[in-house]
Amino acid sequence: MRDMLKRIVLVVFVLLVLMAVSGFFYMQKHPMEGKSAVEKTLNFSGKQVKGAK
Predict the structure, then answer these.
(1) In degrees to the nearest 10, what's the CA dihedral of 42, 46, 48, 51?
(2) Measured torsion, CA atoms of residues 37, 40, 44, 49, in degrees rounded to the nearest 10
(3) Which of 32, 34, 48, 52 suits a disulfide with 41, CB 3.0-4.6 Å?
(4) What does pTM read for this prediction?
(5) Contact, 50 vs 38, CB < 8 A?
(6) Bridge partners for 22 per DSSP
């Protein structure tokens, strides 16, 4: 039972590492062109915040 749990944790860890590496290389090829999460910040009324950059 413990070996199976170790194997599951190892597989999940390897998958997370692979996703991180592939995401890193994807972002190197396809940059977000200056779009950041901060620029998309909305206030409570739903309008975009003017000073967010």
Answers:
(1) -60
(2) 110
(3) 52
(4) 0.54
(5) no
(6) none
Q: How far apart are CA 22 and CA 7, in angstroms?
A: 22
Structure-token pair, residue 52:
């967010």
Asked whether the beta carbons of 53 and 38 are under 8 A apart, the reply is yes
Reported as a single tens digit per residue, the pLDDT across 33-42 is 766 555 555 5
Determine the residue type at 23: G
Strand partners, 48: 42
**Distant-in-sequence, close-in-space partners of 39: CB < 8 Å, separation ≥ 6:** 48, 52, 53
